[in-house]
Amino acid sequence: MGEREITLPVALCDQRGRLSADARGWSRSPMLRANLRHRWGRKKRWDYWCVITDEVVVSLVYADVDYAGLASVWVMEHATGRQWTAGMLSPFARGFALPDEVCTGTVSLHHTSLDLQIEELPRATRLVASAPDTGDGSIQVDITVDKPSGHESLNVLIPWSNRTFQFTSKQNTRPAVGSVSVGSQSWAVDAAHDAWGVQDLGRGIWPYRNRWNWAAASGHSTDGRIVGLQFGGKWTVGTGATENALCVDGHLTKISEELEFTYSWDDPMQPWHVRTPGSDQVDVTLTPTFDRYDCTDLGLLKMEVHQCFGSWSGRIVGDDGVPVEFAGIRGFAEEARNRW
C-alpha cells in the first residue's frame, strides 16, 4: 500500500466543509490549514504535549471538542508513581480557540484552576502551566521544546470518508529544557536527564464511537543514534492511511503497513509488543512501569484510556535498510475507547 507524500501547503476542507482531495496523504512537516466548518458536535481540535525525563513525566492538553473545552496539566514522578493534576472543562468550549494553521500561533487559558499556554516559536515550542495548591503545593511548568533544523515529523490525513476525517501531526525526538515543580519539589528538564518532547496535534471531524492505539518513544540506540517511534492503530484500519513512522537522526521513514499490537486491556501492565506483520521493519516491546488510567463517563459522552509509560526495547529498520537496535528508551503506549 502506497501513500501520497504532500510537499506543498494544502487546505483540509473544501467550501462545503468536506475533505479536500488535495489533503489526502502525508508530509514531513506540518503544512496544513485546518479550515473545519459545519458538522457541529463532530469537530475535534486539540494540542497535546508530553515531556518525559528519567525522573518525571509532564503533559499538557488544550482541546475543543465542540460541545466542551478541556485543558489540563499532569505530572508524574517515575520513582514513586506519585501524580498531580489540575484542569478545567468549559461547556461548549467557551473561551477556547485554536489556529487553523497547524503548529503555529499560541493557545492559552487563564482560569482560577489553571493557567496554561502553548506557544509556537520559530525554533521551539514553549509550554507553560501553573495551577494552585494541589495538596502538595502548586504545579509550575516552564519547558522549551527545541525544533532542530531539518527535523522531520509525521503529518498525515486519516480519511474515513469525505465527511469524517482526521489530520494529525505527531512529533518526537525533540529535545526539551526547563523545569517542573510541585510545591517544594522540583525536577530539571534537560539533556542530562534525557528529556524529550512528543506532540499530538489533531484537527478533524470524527464519528461518534471510536477506538485507537497510540505509541511513542524518544531516545538513543545502542550505537548512539537518535531514535523516535510513532505507532498507531485500530482507528486507521481500512482508510488506506496509517500514522506509523520511524524517526532516526531526524529523518522520517513512513510505514504504510498496519502494525500488530499485542497487549491486554484488562492487564495493561503486561508487556506491549508492536511489530510489522509483513516484514521485520518493526519488532519492539514496551515494558510498562506506570498505567495512567482515566475514565470520564457522562452518559452519552465517555472517554476511557489506559496510557502505559515505560521503556521500549527492540529493533527497527529505516528506509536506508540499516537495522537499529535499542534498549530502555522511554515512552508510552495506549488504547483509548471513546463515545464523543
Structure write-up:
By secondary structure, this protein is mostly beta strands. It has 2 domains: 1-159 and 168-206, Beta Barrel (AttH-like fold); 208-340. The chain is 0% helix and 58% strand. The protein has no helices and 24 strands. The protein has strands at 10-11, 26-27, 32-33, 43-52, 56-64, 68-77, 83-91, 106-110, 115-121, 124-131, 139-146, 154-159, 165-182, 185-189, 196-205, 209-220, 226-233, 244-248, 251-255, 260-262, 272-275, 282-297, 302-317, 323-339. The strands form 3 sheets. Strands 2, 4, 5, 6, 7, 8, 9, 10, 11, 12, 13, 14 and 15 form a 13-stranded antiparallel sheet that branches. A 9-stranded antiparallel sheet has the order 19-18-17-16-24-23-22-21-20, with no helix packed on it. The chain starts with 9 loop residues before the first strand and ends with a strand.
Question: TL;DR of this structure?
Answer:
It holds the Pfam family DUF2804. By secondary structure, the chain is an all-beta fold.
Can you write the helix and strand succession as a string? EEEEEEEEEEEEEEEEEEEEEEEE
Largest sheet: 13 strands, antiparallel
Shape: globular
Structural class comes to mainly beta
CA gyration radius, whole angstroms: 19 Å
What is the topology?
Blueprint: E1 10-11, E2 26-27, E3 32-33, E4 43-52, E5 56-64, E6 68-77, E7 83-91, E8 106-110, E9 115-121, E10 124-131, E11 139-146, E12 154-159, E13 165-182, E14 185-189, E15 196-205, E16 209-220, E17 226-233, E18 244-248, E19 251-255, E20 260-262, E21 272-275, E22 282-297, E23 302-317, E24 323-339
Parallel strand pairs: 1-3
Antiparallel strand pairs: 2-12, 4-5, 4-15, 5-6, 6-7, 8-9, 9-10, 10-11, 11-13, 12-13, 13-14, 13-15, 16-17, 16-24, 17-18, 18-19, 20-21, 21-22, 22-23, 23-24
InterPro entries: DUF2804
Pfam family, one: DUF2804
